[in-house]
Write a structure and sequence with these properties.
heterodimer; A: alpha+beta; Rossmann fold; OB fold (Dihydrolipoamide Acetyltransferase, E2P); 2 domains; five-stranded antiparallel β-sheet; 20 strands; B: mainly alpha; MetI-like fold; 74% helix
Chain lengths: 355, 276
């Protein structure tokens, strides 16, 4: 297993720069998830670590050794592709043993490694099948098996679960986590699904527009997002945002409602800010208990209820476990507990209420 | 699902009609080749002669230069097919996978070569090959056929490579393969249908080519079978029976060749048509 150091790494295609000075240190055995919307550069970064894309600037090290110019085959890392990329003309055993054959491993060793990986993944009965005779979930397992047979320095996952249906995805997610617990392998996992990021990661790297927005433990990103992007991206349903004016330890919302913050902020009075509050932190009350909002839509998820509201003409969501919300009238009243408010500066680049 | 009978019958009849239409000339070839000379003009138009004979076949095989023509055609077509397929595999792969500066111009140039009628090029090519000593030689024919077939075959192979996901090669490289190993062990086996289609296409093109063979070859030693067929046309008569017998014999290698590759060909011609 290995550590991976990414220092000031840049990537440009012609004049278009897709990654800006990415800095990231991944510790030996760590599970890091790169998360962000499509086109944020997360897959490009992963492919650069694999050696499938060149590095335009900066330095990449695996176990302290510079790998910028190293061919993928010499990096000793394994990758699970979104499309699985199984070799169609080889059976499952052939797919799993290909890397060992290329390394001229002894036949008995190959057989043992394949058998052990197959039993780990429940593929024993399928070793003679071709990929096209497998279901999506089985193909996914074979792709994982191909990665684990040779005990590489690191595992790279490029949205490995996005082609599976919801149930299977949940199951595989748990298996990947369990496997990481067993193998303690350095893993880098790319996804746009923030639930996968939250559940799998030791640390999440949130990316947007080719720039790393925040690096931290899942709950840290959730509880203390560094900026507007991270706040909006992590969490489902997403955080609500309202424009407000800061003055004297209070924020004043558009309709004149004043909310006292738990601690004063280092902002000038009169500064424009954005206030964020998670749907599950919003308190609903009766008449006179907060701001009036009209109910647009009620979505019961079974576990809880998502209310889509209009507050000052803006879309606003509330998540509640209270089933009484199902029979909410056309108007409800909402208020925000000050300790759950996130205050962002005018352009959303910084969470000013974050300690 | 129960389909009604009438459309099915109409469909099969239409297919049957097409097959009869397409195969009738071949049938006529066979019929004339077994018709004795004395019955050819005396019986009128009949679907099958009242008496058949193998004499044309035995004459062609024993007393004409046809075995030589056959051998020449096999050498020329086989070599052309193999050389073109190897070149087209490599160039098609490059066009499919790499971005390089002159790519656009190379593709444009290759398309350009396909635009001219061959007749226009006969004279210049003759002029080029003469000082090189490549006229009246099988090597000359192979060179010319290869040159003319590589562009189209390259485009054909490129479309097959385009149908193979790039992920597979990348997976192989991460598994520890060099780019060339990945090409040889992963991509090439998956392109077998494409290779078969290209081989078949080039082989038949070279097998039936007449114009260049006629212009660049004189004398029987280096003549290919299409040129050889013309030896049955003399100033005053055409020996139809022998000509047709030779034609039937000439079909055999081509038919065998296609029989050999048809398993891949069917996959190949339909591959990439639908995703998945």
């Amino acid at each position: 297993m290995a550590s991976i150091d990414i220092q000031n790494v840049k990537k440009a295609y012609g004049h278009v720069q897709v990654l800006h000075d990415v800095d990231l240190q991944i510790k030996d055995g760590e599970f890091v998830v790169l998360v962000g919307p499509s086109g944020c550069g997360k897959s490009t970064l992963l492919r650069m670590i694999a050696g499938l894309e060149g590095v335009t600037g900066g330095e990449m090290r695996i176990d302290g050794k510079r790998v910028n110019e190293l061919h993928p085959k010499d990096r000793d890392i394994a990758m699970v592709f979104q499309s699985y990329a199984l070799y169609p003309h080889m059976n499952v055993a052939g797919n799993m043993s290909y890397s060992l054959k290329l390394r001229k491993t002894a036949k008995e060793k190959i057989a043992a490694a394949v058998a052990s990986a197959a039993s780990k993944l429940g593929l024993d009965a399928l070793l003679d099948r071709r990929p096209k005779a497998l279901s999506g979930g089985q193909r996914q397992r074979v792709a994982m098996g191909r990665a684990i047979v040779r005990q590489p320095k690191a595992f790279l996952f490029d949205e490995p679960l996005s082609n599976l249906d919801a149930r299977l995805r949940e199951q595989m997610r748990a298996e990947i986590k369990k496997m990481h617990g067993d193998l303690k392998a350095t893993s880098i996992y790319v996804t746009h699904d923030q639930i996968e990021a939250m559940t799998l990661a030791d640390r999440i790297v949130a990316m947007h527009g080719g720039v790393v927005q925040q690096v931290g433990a899942p709950l840290e990103l959730y509880d203390r997002p560094a900026n507007l992007f991270v706040a909006g991206f992590i969490g489902s349903p997403g955080m609500n945002f309202l424009d407000a004016i800061y003055s004297n330890g209070n924020v004043t919302l558009k309709d004149g409602t004043v909310v006292a913050l738990p601690a004063p902020l280092s902002l000038d009075d009169g500064a424009r800010v954005t206030v964020g509050v998670r749907p599950e932190h919003v308190v609903m009350g009766g008449e006179g208990a907060g701001m009036a909002a009209s109910v647009d839509l009620v979505e019961p998820t079974g576990f809880g209820i998502i209310l889509h509201l209009s507050l000052h003409g803006l879309a606003f969501k509330v998540f509640t476990l209270d089933r009484a919300a199902l029979s909410a009238g056309p108007m409800v009243h909402v208020s925000f507990p000050p300790q759950h408010l996130h205050v962002f500066d005018e352009n959303g680049e910084r969470c000013v209420s974050r300690q | 699902m129960k389909t009604s009978l009438l459309p099915t019958i109409a469909h099969r009849l239409a297919l049957l009609g097409y097959i009869v239409f397409a195969l009738f000339p071949l049938f006529w070839l066979l019929k004339v080749s077994v018709t004795p000379n004395d019955l050819l003009y005396s019986e009128g138009v009949r679907m099958w002669p009242s008496r058949t004979t193998w004499e044309h076949y035995s004459f062609v095989l024993q007393h004409s230069a046809f075995p030589t023509f056959f051998k020449n055609s096999l050498i020329v077509s086989g070599s052309t097919a193999i050389i073109v397929t190897i070149c087209a595999s490599l160039s098609g792969y490059a066009l499919s996978r790499f971005n390089f500066r002159a790519k656009y111009w190379i593709v444009a140039l290759m398309l350009l070569t396909q635009m001219f009628p061959l007749v226009m090029l006969v004279a210049p090519i003759f002029k080029i090959l003469t000082p090189l000593g490549l006229t009246n030689s099988l090597t000359g024919l192979i060179v010319v056929y290869t040159a003319f077939n590589v562009p189209f075959a390259t485009f054909l192979m490129q479309s097959f490579f385009d149908g193979i996901p790039k992920d597979l090669e990348e997976a192989a490289m991460i598994d520890g393969a060099t780019k060339f190993t990945a090409f040889r062990e992963i991509i090439l086996p998956l392109t077998l249908p494409g290779i078969a289609a290209t081989l078949g296409f080039v082989f038949t093109a070279a097998w039936s080519e007449l114009l260049f063979a006629l212009m660049l070859i004189n004398g029987n030693n280096a003549a290919t079978f299409p040129v050889g067929l013309l030896t049955f046309v003399s100033k005053f008569s055409v020996d139809f029976g022998q000509m047709m017998a030779a034609g039937v014999l000439a079909l055999i290698p081509a038919a065998l060749f296609f029989l050999l590759i048809q398993r891949y060909l069917v996959q190949g011609l339909t591959a990439g048509a639908v995703k998945g």
